Amino acid sequence: MKHLGLKAKAYQLIKDRLLKGEIKPGERIREDLLAESISMSRTPVREAINQLSAEGFVIQVPRKGVFAKEFTLEELADIVDVRIILETYAIRRCCDSATEADIKELEGILSKIIEAVDKDDPGRFGMYDGIFHKQIGSISENKQAISFINHVEDLSVYSRKMEIFSDYRYIVATSIDQHQEIIDALKSKNKERAANAVEINIREALKRLNSYV
């Protein structure tokens, strides 16, 4: 049980570094150095990396080593498509289940997004953007949807660390308006308006790709 606990701890520590951009896409991951930096043995680190590999965050290249995943344009577009399917489904459910407390929670997260913009902090902006969309999954009360949305949102947050993305300030103004529209649509319990607002916001990610056509 103790070993399983170490694996879970190693997994979360390494994943946090990926999501925060401390380990960048394309960067080689040395198990020995990573284990040393988080004060663990190599066994739980190796098992955590195996799990992250299965989840699509890292790749293991025979005779070369382990590398943080770099997504192709096609893979990024696939992530966007999956997010749209999952989150438009979730927001429609939210229109039936959202309470005033749920709305206030989303408004609080949006205030954090605005604060990150004001402080010119793209990392914090991306983190709270992901939290906002995860919260939509949570409000939907569908456990499978919550699990899938959490995973694809983490992939989305991680992928934003790639250099093929343009400066995040390109989209911050419109992003705030789009998140507010999602909240307003949810308040009105208009399912189609809410789904459309979510889809427009998610597709914004493709506009940030320097080479996307």
Written description of the protein model:
- With 213 residues, the chain is mostly helical.
- The protein has nine helices and three strands, in the order H-E-H-H-E-E-H-H-H-H-H-H.
- The protein has helices at residues 2-20, 31-37, 42-54, 73-97, 100-118, 122-140, 143-159, 172-188, 191-207, and strands at residues 28-29, 58-61, 65-68.
- Helix 2 (31-37) crosses helix 3, helix 4 (73-97) runs antiparallel to helix 7 and helix 6 runs antiparallel to helix 7 (143-159).
- The longest helix is centred in the middle third of the chain and has 25 residues, at 73-97.
- The radius of gyration is 18 Å and the shape is elongated.
What are its keywords?
single chain, 213 residues, mainly alpha, Arc Repressor Mutant, subunit A, Four Helix Bundle (Hemerythrin (Met), subunit A), 3-stranded antiparallel β-sheet, 9 helices, elongated
Count every beta strand, where a strand is a DSSP E run of 2 or more residues: 3
Strand composition percent: under 5%
Number of helices: 9
**Percent range of helical residues:** over 70%
Categorize the overall geometry: elongated
Low-confidence stretches: none
How confident is the prediction overall: mean pLDDT? 89
> Briefly, what CATH class of the largest domain?
Mainly Alpha
> What is the string of helix and strand elements?
HEHHEEHHHHHH
Q: Structural class of the secondary structure composition? A: mainly alpha
Biggest sheet, strands in spatial order?
Answer: 1-3-2
Which architecture of the largest domain does the CATH hierarchy give at level 2?
Up-down Bundle
* Most strands sheet: 3 strands, antiparallel
Number of domains: 2
